[in-house]
Amino acid sequence: MSVTSTSPTTNPLSDFAKRLRANFQTYALIVATVIIWVGFSVWSGGTYLGAQNFSNIFRQMTITALLSVGMVLVIVTGHIDLSVGKLAGFVSVVVAYMQATYWPKVLPGHELLTTILSVLIGLAVGALYGVFQGYVIAHLRVPAFIVTLGSFWILNGAILLRTAGKTIPANQPFLSVIAQGYLSPLVGWIVAIFVVGLLFITMFISRRRKVKYGFDLPPIYQDLTRTAFFAALVVAYVFYVNQYNGIQIPVLLLAVIAVAVAYISNNTRFGRYAYAIGGNREATRLSGVNIRGNIFMVFVLMGFLCGVSGVTLASYVGYGTIAAGTGYELDAIAACILGGTSTLGGIGTIPGAMIGGLIMASLTTGLQIMNVAPAWQYVLKGLVLVLAVYVDVYFKKNR
User: Fold this and answer.
1) Amino acid 185: pLDDT
2) Is 21 part of a structural domain of the chain?
3) pLDDT at 22
């Protein structure tokens, strides 16, 4: 009696179910976003998803989304930063002061040059403050919660001292372009074609690397379907925003920074060590990883992104105000947690934080269109945040 051996066959349905369970939280976020958009669109009689309002939703999310990009790595390492909103606000006040008061006296009539210098100074202020906080937290071993809480008050005082209780105008044309400008429809389509091509090239490179290093390779149709889905989203987004004024420059800036930081977090030692520290700090230390140096660099990166956010805030608002940056730290943290970043450390993604930021912006805009009182807006945001944390803890416990 002969026995015939059969090789195991892959069941596409079971493989799909496995991937669905593994990425359940991400898919749930996408579904939640669609439900929010459809719900508010119905309640507003279609106004909510009009091209202009749709464009404004993405523009409004950029400032807190820039903060959430850095906040993901901060939370992943097991820390928190409560000062990001005030640091971004302080940078916006510094940029406004340089534009309105300092440069007109030193370099009158050189608006483009003074705008570039103001932006560079704003970025430097954010990065240097990140160096200060990172040194105190990583090398002096003061808990991040205490350091950043203290910075919250220090920066709030610095904003009041710099503004002297007054609003500083910063609405020069070149600065305004950063957060209020658009790409022409033609340039927008060129960007879309470039991004779509890059998505497919990246997919094939990824498959080649998996083969090279002996990793399991999923069926080609799965990778093609997933890549085609994201490519379709890019094309649909460009088509829709071109119905208004085109791709928003701050959204393009956010996309570039998010992709860059996502690449760093997934493909460099710095990023892998950050996740290892949050996942198991003691094991990471015993493996010879420089934990202090890594945490220091995480906070330097966070400070730099606060600088970017502050420059964008000054450009978007057009002023430096005493309330600059108020509450942004809460929105940034909420966006990260909604996007799947674990409060226990070790888990979190940049794309997830972007979706979380989009949900927060979508909720805020929809509630404003529906004329919901600000008090109830805060209540709803708080409930959403608590629910997101509960879901995160529940899924991590089951895993």
Assistant:
1) 93
2) no
3) 53
Cβ atoms 340, 71 nearer than 8 A: no
Written as six digits, the tokens of 192 are 């879309």
DSSP letters spanning 271-324: HHHHHHHHH-HHHHHHTT--HHHHHHHHHHHHHHHHHHHHHHHHHHHSEE-TTT
Query: Residues 98, 243: one domain?
Result: no
Q: How many structural domains are present in the chain?
A: 2
- Residue 92: give the domain boundaries: 46-181+248-398
- Under a CB-based contact definition with an 8 Å cutoff, are residues 163 and 321 in contact? yes
Phi, psi of 121 (to 5 degrees): -65, -40
pTM of the entire predicted model? 0.89
The per-residue pLDDT for 9 is 45
Burial 248-274 (b: 16+ CB within 10 A, else e): bbbbbbbbebbeebbebbeeeeebebb
Please tell me the chain's helix, strand, coil percentages from 3-state DSSP, rounded to the nearest 5: 75, 0, 20
pLDDT band for position 5 (cuts 50, 70, 90): very low
